[in-house]
Each structure stands twice: as structure tokens, then as C-alpha cells.
Design a protein that fits this description.
Blueprint: E1 4-14, E2 17-27, E3 32-36, H1 43-50, E4 58-65, E5 68-71, H2 77-83, E6 85-88, H3 100-107, H4 111-114, H5 117-127, H6 129-133, H7 144-156, E7 162-166, H8 174-191, E8 194-199, H9 202-208, E9 211-216, E10 219-224, H10 227-231, H11 234-239
Parallel strand pairs: 3-8, 3-9, 6-7, 7-8
Antiparallel strand pairs: 1-2, 1-4, 4-5, 9-10
Helix pairs in contact: 3-7, 7-8, 8-9
The chain binds adenosine-5'-triphosphate (ATP) and magnesium ion.
Length: 243
């Protein structure tokens, strides 16, 4: 069944500072969409608008979950998570003093996911064997790459339909970046997720994206309808490819 997100003409601000201007983005069911932008351009703010953490000044955000449409603006984060939308936040936000397994258990806060705790945990440990080996290790003592895997796995404990991932590559060595991006693709395929991923690592993001948007100073500067269109765009070449 269809699971999509439509962000329409969203404006957002922190006090008098405008951060998002007229942002329109569509993530169709089963797609991976890349939100590309360098530091401070509004990627996380947009993710927070979807999750009800920041309330847009104006605009609409509609999620279709299992074929049913829901207006998200005005809902609490808990309600949005309950619908089946999960965020892997920037900087992972794990509980460092709790174990891997405890972090995963706390991830299963959505009502519908509680009955599936065992199956989801088994899948996480299957998909990330390193987490299984380290299930009793404190999250804060894991390496950066392991922590990113744990953050992804924790979001899956919600049995989400739509997954938002905010800069999964930050702070990781190149090999771990490509492993993390591969993991997102693998999880998406296994769970038939719809994915919106914010990234600065253009090459890695475009590897798994169906299409993408470039955000500059809070405005969508370019919409590439395919990875090829993104690769061939002049702005993208200037900002990301050094050409
Ligand atoms: N809580 C806040 N209060 C005031 N200004 C904020 C707040 N959060 C973000 N901003 C500002 O909004 C702008 C966009 O920030 P945002 O975090 O959305 O960007 P980003 O694209 O995610 O950047 P990065 O790649 O560094 O994570 C920045 O100028 C930032 O300083
Ligand atoms: Mg950010």
C-alpha cells in the first residue's frame, strides 16, 4: 500500500530568522529521495517540520500511510511517530549509557511496533551482525559507524512506513559512509520503506536516490528527477563536484 510524503510551500523560521522558504518536495511511495545541501541550508529544519518538532509558519505536509492521507502540521511528534514515520536524527542521539539492546528496546515506542519487538530485533541483529555481537555493549563506547548502524536499527524498531534519515554520513570514514548508505538501501528494500535522506555527501546519496532536491539558503534551488539529472546539473557540479 502507498506510503508517501508531500511537502507543499513550507515556510519555517526560528523567531524572526527565516530558514525555509516555499519548500515543495514529493517523496512517492517506495522512493528514496535525497535532500542535498551544505551546512546551514535548512535540511534538518525540514526534517523537524515533518516530525512536528518545528511548526512551519505556513504550508502543508501530508503523509500517506498505507493508503490513508494525514495532514501532519499541528500534530505532535508522538502522533506522527505513531502514524509510522521515523527519524534517524543528525548526530544519532543514542542513549550512550545504555546497551545496544536497551537502545533498540526503547526505539519500539510506537504502539503498533510493540507486538513486533522480537521480530524487529531479530531483523536488526540479522542485518547488522556487529550489533548482535555487541548487544550488551554500552552504545557510547561503540565506534561512529557502529553507532550509526544502531541509530538506523533503532528507527526500524518502530516498524516505520516512512523513514527520514538526517545526514547519516556525518563523521564517518569513507568506507563506513558507503556501508551506511548501502545499509539504508538494504533496509529500504527489505521493509519496502519510503525514504527521505538529507545528505551533504552528494556522490554517496545519489548512488541510492531515485531523485533529489538541492536546497540552498532554505529554498529548493534545483530538482533533479533522476540521479543523472542531478549529476549533470551545473549548480550541483559547482557545489559538490568541484567542476
Ligand atoms: N533552534 C534554532 N534556533 C535558531 N536558529 C536555528 C535553530 N536551528 C537551526 N537554526 C538555524 O537555521 C538554519 C538552518 O539550520 P539547519 O540545521 O536546518 O541546517 P542544515 O542544512 O541541517 O545544516 P547542517 O548540514 O549543518 O546540519 C541555520 O542558519 C541555523 O543556524
Ligand atoms: Mg542538519
Amino acid at each position: 500500500m502507498a506510503n508517501s510524503i508531500t511537502i507543499e510551500n513550507v515556510h519555517a523560521a526560528y523567531g524572526s530568522v527565516r530558514v525555509l522558504e516555499d519548500v515543495t518536495i514529493t517523496v512517492n511511495s517506495g522512493e528514496t529521495v535525497a535532500l542535498l545541501g551544505t551546512n546551514g541550508n535548512g535540511k534538518s529544519t525540514l526534517m523537524k517540520c515533518v516530525m512536528g518538532i518545528v511548526r512551519p509558519v505556513s504550508g502543508r505536509i501530508v503523509a500517506e500511510i498505507d493508503g490513508e492521507k494525514h495532514d501532519l502540521v499541528g500534530r505532535t511528534t508522538e502522533q506522527i511517530v505513531d502514524l509510522g514515520i521515523a527519524l534517524v536524527p543528525e548526530g544519532r542521539r543514542l542513549f550512550p549509557k545504555l546497551t545496544v539492546e536497551e537502545n533498540l528496546l526503547l526505539g519500539a515506542s510506537r504502539r503498533k511496533a510493540r507486538a513486533q519487538i522480537k521480530a524487529n530485533m531479530d531483523f536488526c541483529f540479522d542485518a547488522f551482525s556487529r550489533l548482535a555481537e555487541r548487544r550488551n555493549q554500552l552504545a557510547g563506547s561503540m565506534s561512529g559507524g557502529e553507532q550509526q548502524m544502531l541509530a538506523l536499527a533503532r528507527a526500524l524498531m518502530l516498524s516505520p512506513r516512512i523513514l527520514l534519515v538526517d545526514e547519516p554520513s556525518v563523521g564517518l570514514a569513507p568506507l563506513l559512509v558507503s556501508r551506511t548508505i548501502d545499509a539504508i538501501k538494504q533496509l529500504k528494500d527489505h521493509y519496502q520503506l519510503t525514504v527521505l535522506m538529507a545528505e551533504q555527501n552528494f556522490k554517496q546519496a545519489v548512488r541510492i536516490a531515485d531523485h533529489g532536491y538541492v536546497i540552498v539558503h532554505g529554498k529548493i534551488a534545483f530538482e533533479g528527477r533522476s540521479a543523472e539529472e542531478l549529476n549533470n546539473n551545473d549548480l550541483v557540479r559547482k557545489l559538490y563536484l568541484g567542476m
